[in-house]
Amino acid sequence: MALFRILLLAFILSGVFKFVTRILIPILKMRSAFKAQMHAQQQTPSSQAQQPTPQAQQKTKSAGEYIDFEEIK
């Protein structure tokens, strides 16, 4: 009977060890990497996201210079 308990305990412990190493540890690593990435994004200046791109600035400047052409006969 003692041998059965030892084998059962070893089987249960190996199952727990496999669960922790194959499933739980990668999930925890992914979570910490995600937190680090979010923290890095929050550290970047938010003014860069609000500044218009140079192309958008050129479009707005040239939009006021449009002259409607009418052909005279």
Features:
77% helix; mainly alpha; 73 residues
Give the beta-strand count: 0
Largest sheet: none
* H and E string: HHH
Helix content: over 70%
Average of pLDDT: 81
Low-confidence stretches: none
Query: Taking Cα atoms only, what radius of gyration do you get, to the nearest Å?
Result: 32 Å
Number of helices: 3
Morphology call: rod-shaped
> Which structural category do the helix and sheet elements fall into?
mainly alpha
- Amino- and carboxy-terminal Cα gap: 112 Å
Strand percent estimate: under 5%
What does this structure look like?
The structure is a single chain. It contains 3 helices and no strands. The protein has helices spanning 2-43, 47-50, 54-63. With 73 residues, the chain is an all-alpha fold. The model has no long low-confidence stretch (mean pLDDT 81).
Secondary structure layout:
Layout: H1 2-43, H2 47-50, H3 54-63
Would you summarize the structure shown here?
This protein is mainly alpha-helical and 73 residues long. It has helices at residues 2-43, 47-50, 54-63.
